[in-house]
């Protein structure tokens, strides 16, 4: 593998890692605050990509506004699942195993619903053709650069929200101790709603961005759910910054492994990293808190 190919794979890994990072942050927030290992998270990501595609192609709306509409649709779907499924399950004090099984069922429901409504074939956005940009002999697709920039902006916005707003401080308090947070007067139900809003927005944005660099297809989120969980575990469960770092590491390792193992073993690489981390450092690279 020559230097140019390595650099190309490195850039690809950063772009894919940026997409995984946004979705992984949403996943780690729902676990850190709601104690929910949501296996439907990847399919909500797919739903966001399809909502974006629908607004962009069927309604002819600009791709960036379409991503915003896709985020709104995904947040609405997540809030609906909270109202119908997760809130009643919390009231019944359902076990984590029960919640995992329900989330897998929800994932299958969303995926098959997408196939039923829009079919199983690949879709693509209505985008102008833009030439690749060349840096020191490395040709980088224009939309991959945009994906990285958008991910950085979204991560900065999340950091400011968590650190400098009342709802961000309330989310950190609920993640640390929900009973103590309730006693001190924090509206936990409001925090739960905001958690779904933030997770849904980031996840839908990740899905829309993934559609920019690949095709929009019904199983795209399902194939990313393992790298998402690997990122969350690698970075420390419940730590959004750790999830971002873990996602970038997973994205880079997956892409750099292609010349040696082939593209069909990318998921295997993510699974291997997750197993190694669980065996050696179960708490992850960083402390698993908000």
Automatic annotation (TrEMBL):
It is a multi-pass membrane protein. The chain crosses the membrane at residues 9-33, 53-79, 99-120, 140-162, 191-213, 225-253, 265-284. Keywords: Amino-acid transport, Cell inner membrane, Cell membrane, Membrane, Transmembrane, Transmembrane helix, Transport. Its main location: membrane. InterPro entries: ABC_transp_permease, BCAA_transport_permease. It comes from the Bacteria. It is found in: Cell membrane. PANTHER family: BRANCHED-CHAIN AMINO ACID TRANSPORT SYSTEM PERMEASE PROTEIN LIVH (PTHR11795), HIGH-AFFINITY BRANCHED-CHAIN AMINO ACID TRANSPORT SYSTEM PERMEASE PROTEIN LIVH (PTHR11795:SF371). Belongs to the binding-protein-dependent transport system permease family. LivHM subfamily. This is Branched-chain amino acid ABC transporter permease.
């Amino acid at each position: 593998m020559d230097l140019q190919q390595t650099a190309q794979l490195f850039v690809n890994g950063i772009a894919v890692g940026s997409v995984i990072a946004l979705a992984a942050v949403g996943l780690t927030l729902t676990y850190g605050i709601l104690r929910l290992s949501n296996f439907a998270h990847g399919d909500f990501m797919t739903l966001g990509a399809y909502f974006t595609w629908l607004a962009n192609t069927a309604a002819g709306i600009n791709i960036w506004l379409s991503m915003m509409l896709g985020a709104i649709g995904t947040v609405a779907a997540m809030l609906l699942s909270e109202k119908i499924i997760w809130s009643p399950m919390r009231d019944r004090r359902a076990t984590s195993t029960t919640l995992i099984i329900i989330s897998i069922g929800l994932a299958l429901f969303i995926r098959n619903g997408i196939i039923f409504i829009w079919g199983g074939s690949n879709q693509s956005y209505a985008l102008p053709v833009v030439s690749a940009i060349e840096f020191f002999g490395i040709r980088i697709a224009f939309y991959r650069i945009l994906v990285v920039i958008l991910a950085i902006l979204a991560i900065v916005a999340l950091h400011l929200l968590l650190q400098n707003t009342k709802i961000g401080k309330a989310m950190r308090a609920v993640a640390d101790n929900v009973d103590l947070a309730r006693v001190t007067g924090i509206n936990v139900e409001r925090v739960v709603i905001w958690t779904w809003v933030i997770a849904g927005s980031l996840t839908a944005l990740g899905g829309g961005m993934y559609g920019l660099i690949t095709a929009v297809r019904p199983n795209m989120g399902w194939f990313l759910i393992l790298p998402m969980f690997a990122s969350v575990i690698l970075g420390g469960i419940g730590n959004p910054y750790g999830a971002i770092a873990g996602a970038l590491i997973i994205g880079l390792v997956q892409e750099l492994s292609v010349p040696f193992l082939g593209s069909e073993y990318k998921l295997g690489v993510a699974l291997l990293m997750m197993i190694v981390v669980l065996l050696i450092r179960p708490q992850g690279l960083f402390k698993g808190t908000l």
